[in-house]
Each structure stands twice: as structure tokens, then as C-alpha cells.
Amino acid sequence: MKKQTLHKRIQIANDLMYYIYTHIDTDIDIEELSQTMQISKFHLHRIFKEVFDKNIYESIKSIRLQKASNLLLTNTLSTISEVAKMCGYSSQTSFLRVFKERFGMTPKEWKNGGYKRYSQQIINQSEKAKNSTASFEHLEPTIVKMPRIQSYYLRHDGYNAAIKQTWQKLQTWIYSNGVSEYKQIALFHDNPTVTPLGECRYVACVATEKPYKIKSDRVPQFTIADGIYAKFDLSGEQGDMLKFIQWVYQEWLPKSGYETTTKPPYAVYKKNNYLSDDALFEISFYLSIRF
Q1: 77 in a domain, yes or no?
Q2: Is residue 39 domain-shared with residue 155, that is, in the same domain?
Q3: What is the DSSP string of the chain?
Q4: pTM: predicted TM-score of the whole model, two decimal places
Q5: For residue 198, what pLDDT is reported?
Q6: Which of 18, 61, 202, 271 is the most buried (most CB within 10 A)?
């Protein structure tokens, strides 16, 4: 496959994924989208599957259920039927069915503490996270308005130690292109505390702070969404990150009065544990919110 064609296909898949995230509460019409993007529905499905290793409808379903799992905790005044509608489900019956298929319990059981048991099973998949003793009750976020961030990226399937290899490839790309002013950013397409770690999509990004003449076109570009975010500054070691995300979604968010959105959270590294000798991190974590 020609490089130009490959990059065009990646761009198409990324544009479609961005559309899904920003329109997840609507009836997403793939036929209409394919016409707008001037590509056949068949090829749109094939390109998406090649890039993300998951079909379009599976991705839509997964994103909707992740959103629902959060809204059931944060929107305490909303009924289950209202949450279903906010997540793009026209039928409460179908919502109840797919929610139970995904989480092994009903939305009501999830709200009544089931989310803690489910999430802990995910945490226990990581020995480091399971043994983490980090506490985050002292953290107070600042509310910030963030611009869109244009970045270069490599995607990693799974939330595991092999993420280090993805960052090493990006570091090689940085050195090869003489990039000296940049930020390293981790984008979490999936919430790793409610998604089996092997199924998570982690995106390692490099945002350059000035234009560079890029010699290699093997690393595609992606735009991180702008918006209002709660910004948490913290440091720790690898296992602490999963525990922190669990705390943000299950402790801080429900008590905060805010709701999250479908925009993926991201972390800007001051120190990248995957590249540092001591395996410690220092980050600013950005969680998309609304009030």
C-alpha cells in the first residue's frame, strides 16, 4: 500500500472516531456519514476495522456504555431512561440488555455499588495497581479552558507495560526529526477502570510547540479536543495511575457536582514513567467536564 494512501485511510478513520465521540448522544447514521465523506459505506467499515481493529458499531456501543456507566454515577437526578437517551438509546429495553451484557449487572445494580466491584476486578488485572497504596483525597483540581492540541501519535492496544515500547518509538521519531520543543501526552480513548485492560486503546502523543520539518511520515497526526477540563497535578509510579483514574471517576466526580463528557481524558507528562530510569511519573491530568 502506498504511504499516501495509508495516511489518508488513517485520517479517515480518525475523523470518523472523532465524529463518534462528539455525536455519541445522537442516532449516528453511517450511511449518511459515508456520503458526506464521499466514500462507500463498505470501504468506511473496512478502513475503520483496519485502523482500530474493531468495527464501527462495536466502537459506538462501547463508547455509549462507557458514557452511561459514568452518567449513572454523576447524574443522580436523572432516571435510567433519561441516561439511556443521553447515550443515544431510543429504547430503554435495549439499553438495559446491552448494559447487562457488558457489565454483568443492571444499571440499577451498577448505581447501587456494583460499579465498585466491577472496577476492582479491572484493577486486579494489574499487579502494580492492585498493590498501590497511593491516596488522592488531598488533590484539588483547577478548572481550565484548554485549546485544541495538534499532535503526532502512535496508538497502543492494551494498558500494559508494553506501552514503553510505543513511547520508545516516538522518542526515536523525536530524535530523528530534531524536535526539541514538545510535550508528551497520553490520551485515554477508553476508561481503563471499566474496560478490560487488554481491550483499552492508549494513544501516545507528541505535541510540538513550534513548526518542524518532519522527515518521516510514519507517525500520523491527531487533534485532541478543546473544552473545559478539571486539571489534576500528581506524581507517582505506574500502578498509581489506574488507582487515580478509578478515584477520579468513582469518588471525585460523583461528589463534585460536575458531569464528564465523551471527550477522552488526557495526561501531559512533566516526567514520563515509561521513559524515565526510576519509572516515576509527574503529570497534569485533564478530565473533560460540564456543569
Answers
A1: yes
A2: no
A3: --HHHHHHHHHHHHHHHHHHHHTTTS---HHHHHHHTTS-HHHHHHHHHHHHSS-HHHHHHHHHHHHHHHHHHH-TTS-HHHHHHHTT-S-HHHHHHHHHHHHSS-HHHIIIIIHHHHHHHHHTTSHHHHT-----TT---EEEEEPPEEEEEEEEESSSTTHHHHHHHHHHHHHHTT--SEEEEEEESS-TTTS-GGG-EEEEEEEESS----S--SS-EEEE--EEEEEEEEEEEHHHHHHHHHHIIIIIHHHHS-EE-SSPPEEEEEE-TTTSTT-EEEEEEEEEEE-
A4: 0.88
A5: 87
A6: 202
pLDDT digits (tens, 9 = 90+) for 109-132: 999 999 999 999 999 988 999 999
Number of domains in the chain: 2
Could you read off the pLDDT of 155-178 as tens digits, one per residue? 888 899 899 999 999 999 999 999
Same domain, 96 and 224: no
